[in-house]
Amino acid sequence: MTELKSAVLYEYLTKVRAIGIFYLIQYSIVALIFAIVAICTEGKETGSNALEFSSVVFVSVIGVLGYKEDFKALLQNGYTRKYIFGATVCMFTLLAGTLALIDTIIGNSLHYFNDNYFTLYGGIYGYGNVFANWLWLTALYLMFCSLFYLAVLVINRVGKTVSLLIGVVVCSIILLVIALFQFVFPDELVSKTWEFMMKAMGFMGDGTTNLFFPVLSFLVIGVVFGIGSYAVIRRTELR
After folding, report:
1. Under 8 Å between Cβ of 228 and 150
2. What's the predicted TM-score (pTM) here?
3. Are the beta carbons of 236 and 222 closer than 8 angstroms?
4. Domain residue limits, the chain
5. 183-236, pLDDT tens digit by residue?
6. Could you tell me which of 53, 221, 90 has the C-alpha nearest to residue 150?
7. Residues whose CB falls within 8 Å of the CB of residue 227, separated by 6 or more in sequence, listed in order
């Protein structure tokens, strides 16, 4: 446990400076945009909404760029791939939770002082539950961390050319599935699939909203990506 804790702290602390720089740049730009738009529209518009999208991009980049240096440093210090993977998952969780907490506080504060501004979560589910907002964002950010961590592991493992081919195949399959649902599959199947997806996002058939389901959905998808990452990292060598 001591080794795992040390690895987690190492990986997380290497990202703290990046988090600070990210928010400093983001909100400096946002403040400028808000000021310009407020002057031009006499406060009727905000100029920006759903700033959480920037955090999604940031955690995705962290998932990619944080891989090689951390993996190399921990491997050279005697950590097994199992410990490295466990430390990375813990780091992603702490990172996602930290960013989600900051975005929840700032996003709800901006909406409170200017109701023209809406957050990513609030625009979908409303503003009645701050804790659910934080949990939802944490699960969302964690899912994207896992996705892009898997992507960079695959690229490192099979090379850029094969990875590009895999990307083309995956995109082709997605387009094929969309076409099948739109033109081939019966309406009943399409309706049931849509109903299932809506429930997975928390919108129940009786008009109520279950805030636990979308969090669970993001976590399940993240676990699938995580299983794939662990399968790849066991055979990963730095290129």
Report:
1. yes
2. 0.88
3. no
4. 2-233
5. 888 889 889 999 999 999 999 888 888 999 999 999 999 999 999 988 888 876
6. 221
7. none
Q: What angle do CA 134, 66, 121 make, to 5 degrees?
A: 20
Tokens at 165, concatenated? 């081919």
Cross-strand bridge partners of residue 209: 203
Q: Which amino acid is at 94?
A: L
Please give the backbone phi and psi of residue 29, each rounded to the nearest 5 degrees, phi first: -70, -45
pLDDT, averaged in runs of 10, over the chain (239 residues) = 68 78 86 79 68 88 70 70 81 90 92 84 90 95 91 82 86 89 86 91 88 94 92 73
- Map the chain to HEC letters: CHHHHHHHHHHHHHHHHHHHHHHHHHHHHHHHHHHHHHHHHCCCCCCCCCCHHHHHHHHHHHHHHHHHHHHHHHHHCCCCHHHHHHHHHHHHHHHHHHHHHHHHHHHHHHHHHCCCCCCHHHHHHCCCCHHHHHHHHHHHHHHHHHHHHHHHHHHHHHCHHHHHHHHHHHHHHHHHHHHHHHHHCCHHHHHHHHHHHHHHCCECCCCCECCHHHHHHHHHHHHHHHHHHHHHHCCCCCC
Amino acid of residue 17: R
* Residue whose pair of structure tokens reads 């990210």 in the numeric block: 22
- Smallest CA-to-CA distance from 56 within 110, 109, 95, 13 is with 95
Q: Angle at Cα 235 formed by Cα 157 and Cα 57, nearest 5°?
A: 50
Let me know: does 87 contact 74? Beta carbons within 8 Å.
yes
